[in-house]
Amino acid sequence: MTAVQYSIRILIAICGAFFLAQYLQWSQGYWLVLSAVLLMQIRIDNFFWKNSWVLLLSGILMAVNVCLANGFASIHYLLPFYLFLTTLVTVCFSLIKTEYFLSAFFVNLVGIIAAGMPVSGAVLWARVECVFFGILLALLVGCLCWPPRLYPDLKQQLRNCFSNLDELQKKLFFIYLKRDYAEQHFFYERDLHQQRELIFFDMKKMNEALEKLAPAQANNWRDCFDHLNHLFDIIIALGNLRYRIQDQATFEVCEKELALVSIYISKGLDNLTKQLKSKKAVEFNLDGFVLAIRAVEEIYRSTLQVVSKDPLVFLLFIQNLYAVQEELNSLANDVEKL
Amino acid sequence: MNKIAIIKRVVPRALAIFVAVVISFYFALSEKFWLPLAAMLVMQTGVGLALRQGMERFFTIALGVALGTVLVVVIKQPVLIAVLTAILFTLFCYFAVKESLHYFVLSMPFLFALILLITMLLPISHPTILYERLYDVTIGAVVGLVTNLVVFPVRADAEFRNNVAPVLDAYRLYLISIMDLLYKKNGAFEKALASKNRVEQTLQAQSAFFPVWVYQSGLSIALRQGHRHFLVMVERVGQILFSMHHVARYSFDPVLLKDLQAPLEGFVSQSEKILQALATVLSLNKLTEGVSDLTEELAQLEQRFKAVVPLSLELLDMSKEYVYLAAFIHDLKDLRLTQIKLAQALR
After folding, report:
1. ipTM of this predicted structure
2. Is the separation of the CB atoms in B296 and B290 below 8 Å?
3. Percent of chain B having pLDDT more than 90?
4. In degrees to the nearest 10, what's the CA dihedral of A102, A107, A113, A119?
């Protein structure tokens, strides 16, 4: 989900909550807005049912905590102990199950707010009612605006993987074209770490989804996943050149060729994505990529062998480029079978 | 995350809430929740950044309270307030998510949006409410900041060591599985993939508390440089292992591998020991015995490699098998050099 989509969901939820609160003239209407808006932030999975269950359960826990905190607020000496305990439990839970951090955090937050503004029985009931309306509103907006999928969509996850892998290779090749890597390498490495993390996350999700598939159905996907894993390893191996070559100026010799290689890897991954989206066969041609590798090979033989302190690393780099080509072809075959 | 680390993080937060609630009984001027809420929110800080980030969060809360209260005091029409709240909240949420989709809830724009929302939703009872809310928020922030700094303060170096040790341990098991894959042992392919998955999990901040906080600004300069350098080296080991995994997938001539088996296994076993020693040093914070010489087997391995494959680049270029074997040995060499840098950094 993009930042814009996320914001539109929030805007719809908050406007809906304000409208309901105004229309129904509830004195505790702000609890409807608060609970709906907080619950809208929770999105722990790409699957509809799990997401909805977590949202519902978080909402119910919020309502229970609002009631209990309100009750304890009337007994002064017990309230600090109650809030101590709820904080202990929620923080502990969020540290053990990090994916539920938001749910635990919001449950604790509404408890603190409710304890600070205690109300009597009838008003408390109106408050809880508002929280439940907030849950319903959050569920409704969650269903209507960019809902997560009902079942795992492996093709979508594979497309995400391709896109993130493409971003990673672009960033790695970009470093070869930048002179300030040595001085700013913490900055670049952090960026690369974040990009790798996205791929790890995609792969983990894909692996989890693969385990749920029937064995007959899983075979093609398993092959595809293995090749994807291999392609990731090769791209990482390509990136290792950045610390094997100490003198950044060496890359100047093959600057254009490296940029071209990156463009063709990008095109290859883009073609795979198109193939996944399209129902018809998409032509998959890596001739341009092979020519780009040959250009690197040529410059390696004519210049880099002489200029570079350790020409072997460029030879290994070229070999890895051919390995990328092989893996892209294998992936194209796998994708065709899916 | 181990139990002690969890207790050290949980207890200060719960204690701060306890103290803040007790103080709010006697000193709170406005709504009673501002004090514990401010205490809770200023404690959401990164490792080694308790004071700086805590102060930043306090100022954000104060600004949110001030803006929200002033808007509600100035604009009397509820519909206009509702529209303004919706627009401002959405806008700041957008900035928060744009900054980071995974960690937006801990970002300053989201904190500002949350406080603004709470402030604008609450009815204003009297004109001096702004002063009273700011007074409560300040006391709450002081409680949170002091508790965060005094009760089980998180020592950045200890936290860093605890976070990195499991990564090195995962690397060690991954290296063993890569060697099994190189020699095409039974079930080696699946084992290597499983080990790779484990490494990937330990390298993610979300699941294993990988110390990405060393990249954040505000960390003590003395710690920052060393920790960042060490972390980059640790990640480099992972990247070398991924590269070795790629090469180990290929089928090599068994005779060629047999020729290299003794020095290769000797080298890898020593590398495993170094990884284990590094993990032990990090987790126990004391030096262990067992790793003496770091470069001798590398020379042996290279010598043996030169004996079984052609020496010149041109001849090496002619066989894919030789190139891949050279790549594997180059990776091993890089691995050892990185391990040496890690060992030097530990001093």
Report:
1. 0.81
2. no
3. 37
4. 150
